[in-house]
């Protein structure tokens, strides 16, 4: 059986396969996604939950959204990689983090949400100095 998408966390404890196409791919700048990712945004692909099969030991954290629904964020219990999120408003769906997915070459961000919370240091589509890998740089002492 071949699956459409697969993924894993940083340590490899969590693996998943998906047998459907995403309903939508969204980039979110909300403050919760900033805390969760430790960066300026998250990128996730929403799928029908029944088409996603996960294995490995997960850990989760729940909070209330500004709209009053319950949001659950699910992580690898070992390395802490964010794996997926779900919202009680859409109990049949879950949103997998795009960074944990194996081959995302055919996926594109279709919508940006909570742009009002975007940090000024998030730079998209602007001229920035880019490195192919990590530059050889040390903080000056
Ligand atoms: Zn892990
Ligand atoms: Zn968010």
Please mark out the parts with pLDDT under 50 across 5 or more consecutive residues, or reply none. Answer: none
| Rough outline | globular
Q: What does the average pLDDT come to?
A: 93
Largest sheet: 7 strands, mixed
**Secondary-structure content class:** mainly beta
CATH level 1 class label: Mainly Beta
Helical content band = under 10%
Cα-to-Cα separation, first versus last residue: 56 Å
Overall strand count: 10
CATH architecture: Beta Complex
Question: What's the multimeric state?
Answer: single chain
Can you list the strand order of the major beta sheet?
6-7-8-9-4-3-10
Q: Indicate the CATH topology.
A: Metal Binding Protein, Guanine Nucleotide Exchange Factor, Chain A
Structure annotation, total helices: 1
The total tally of domains equals: 1
> What fraction of residues sit in β-strands?
35-45%
What is this entry, summarized?
With 141 residues, the protein is mainly beta.
């Amino acid at each position: 059986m071949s699956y459409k998408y697969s993924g894993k966390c940083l340590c490899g404890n969590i693996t998943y396969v998906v047998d459907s196409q995403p309903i939508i791919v969204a980039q979110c700048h909300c403050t919760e996604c900033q805390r969760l990712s430790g960066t300026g945004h998250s990128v996730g692909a929403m799928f029908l939950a029944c088409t996603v099969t996960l294995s490995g030991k997960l850990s989760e954290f729940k909070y209330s959204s500004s709209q009053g629904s319950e949001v659950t964020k699910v992580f690898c219990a070992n390395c802490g990689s964010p794996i997926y999120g779900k919202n009680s408003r859409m109990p049949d769906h879950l949103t997998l983090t795009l960074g944990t997915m194996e081959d995302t070459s055919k996926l594109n961000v279709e919508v940006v949400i909570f742009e009002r919370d975007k940090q000024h240091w998030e730079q998209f589509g602007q001229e920035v100095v880019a490195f192919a890998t990590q530059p050889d740089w040390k903080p000056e002492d």
